[in-house]
Amino acid sequence: MSVGRPTVCAVNAVQTYRYLQPSALRPAGLDLQTCGGPAANPRFFSGFLTTPAAAAAGLLAVAEVARTRYHQPVSPASLDPVVTGSRDRLRFESFSGCCGVYARMDVVPAGFDGDIVGHGTTNVDVNPPLREALARVGGIEPLHVAVGPDDLTVSTLDDAVVEKKVPLPGRWLRGFAEVHVLTAAFEPRAEIPAAEAAAFLRRLPGANDRSVLWAVPAGRTLRLTSRPTPGAVCLAGAGRLAALRGLLRHARTLRVYGPPVRAGSPAVASTWELDTGALRLSLTLSPEPYRGFSGEGAALLALAGDEVIDDAELVGALLSWDPTIDVAAFADAAGLPDDRVRAALAQLGTAGRVGYDVADGGYFHRVMPYDAGRAERDNPRLVGARALVERGAVEWADGHATVRSGEEVYRVRRLPDGAYTCSCRWWGRHQGQRGPCKHALAVSMATAPAEGPA
């Protein structure tokens, strides 16, 4: 993931990393170099990791996801992970080059002994020599780590700047919003001990497998099946869990999270989390190996309300680097109902300002320099829906809405659960699995007459 302010080009942005020196494991400890965010090269933490081997394995896993394309693997991706310093923890995040796997390592208070000296989100350099060094970290003695350069480094290494430029695709940015909106609906589905987790992961298909499986709790382990049942968790492209294996020997438990499913449910996203007690490493997988999170459409309805941008500004002013955002407390402070606060958080998520932690069951604050307007510019369906509303293309009659788009007229109905159906070809192909079509979005934005449909 990338935090430095990108330079926009015709199609994609270009991300420029400027590190004062390469990150390295030195005799004095682990120096992680940063760039972008609240300063050119911010410093967030100086202290000790209490479980260095586990932390090294977790950081390697996050870095591995950042450089991997799981669908049609070709050349490695080149985006660096990011780290967020909040009040009581460090969060390292990355997104795969194919946009289908989101990784995060949360170092909780038991995992470090030191001071978080700054708050914010920044890129962190994890280069090939550092990866080799991290793979050799062992022992139980605490390891000193610095996240960001000290004042001496800033003043003496101006001539040693490491600079690289990498593309920053729009679909990669959109994945931020989709991941946190999707995972906000997840619930814990299973928890198994580390030994059983290791055996379960060994039984999984290899890296090239593209099948969609379902994991069902079975005593102290998980059983795989080819069909969904209530309580099951989707596991699509099981080889994408490979990054968890390095942390297994340090873990206590494997927890699995997912949305509610029933017999006949389509493939859905899921989160798989190893917990060592000092840190948590989670991988969130897209519903199918070929599907990136950027196209799921989960954030679109939340972004469609006229008041959502104003609400996002109000809620955004309340963010203060709390590791978990209390929606009810924010609703009271902002004078808004809970659902509008959640919609505002979805809007802020598209700007990279919040994420969602399934273990804590809450949002967390981060700041990445993407303006909130990109939520619309990067969602063609939302742009198309607003254009339809502006043209007066939505009409109400006989308990349903119609939308005129070009020469075609589409019939849109709202279901009791708040979802929409549409007679267009796109909705017929996806049946709501990829979010609403632009016609349904237009209907959700338009105001129905008092006697019309809800």
From TrEMBL:
Keywords: Metal-binding, Zinc, Zinc-finger. GO terms for molecular function: zinc ion binding. It holds the Pfam family SWIM. InterPro entries: Znf_SWIM. The keyword Zinc-finger applies. Residues 410-448 form the SWIM-type domain. This is SWIM zinc finger. It comes from Micromonospora viridifaciens.
